[in-house]
Specification:
195 residues
């Protein structure tokens, strides 16, 4: 049976112009610099055009962040089918997430905005990640390398483990070097999934 992949979101050319403008504003001015007026100016579109697609600047920021997660997940076209491959995918996703221009800026320079957009509620980005994780967990369960249980529930805790590690990485950098951090994260992810 072919594995069902998570739903992906696609944006049209106009929406991409607006989201490109949002990315630029997020990097240069931060979350508070993303206004409908600035989006219109940077995208060379009218304000009514932007309002046809989003309710407000906050919605645009959320969509810009979702587009970035979608782009990272596109690098993982098929679900992992074993615990080892799943742990590897989570690590690779975490590395790409940390290296993403906008997310790394938010983590370093606007942690309160990062928290608001990624941690205070389960939004579209988190749901997309959870869907991706659940598909891989289900595939690895069929292969016998991941413990039994509801894939979505296991995915939630897997996301929390990885998310906590990524968010705290800078905080504990003087206590644990990168190699040890990676090794301990692998142990935590693998332990959570092991039958």
């Amino acid at each position: 049976m072919k594995e069902r992949q998570p739903e992906t979101v696609e944006w049209d050319a106009t929406q991409n112009r607006i989201l490109d403008a949002a990315d630029t504003l997020l990097l240069r001015r931060g979350v508070h610099g993303v206004t409908i007026a600035e989006l219109a100016r940077r995208s060379d579109l009218s304000r009514p055009t932007i309002y046809r697609h989003w309710n407000d600047a906050d919605d645009v920021v959320r969509s810009a962040l979702l587009r970035r997660v979608t782009s990272i997940l596109a690098e993982f076209p098929a679900p992992a089918t074993s615990r080892t491959a799943l742990v590897d995918d989570v690590l690779r996703f975490s590395e790409r997430f940390q290296r993403d221009d906008v997310y790394s800026h938010l983590l370093a320079d606007e942690p309160e905005a990062f928290t608001r957009y990624t941690l205070q509620r389960v939004g579209s980005s988190q749901r997309l990640i959870l869907s991706w994780l659940a598909a891989s967990i289900a595939a690895a369960q069929r292969g016998g390398t991941v413990r039994a249980g509801e894939p979505q529930q296991i995915a939630v805790m897997l996301l929390l483990i990885a998310q906590s590690a990524v968010l705290s990485h800078g905080t504990v950098a003087e206590l644990i070097d990168d190699a040890a951090w990676t090794s301990e994260l692998i142990a935590a992810l693998d332990g959570h999934l092991r039958p």
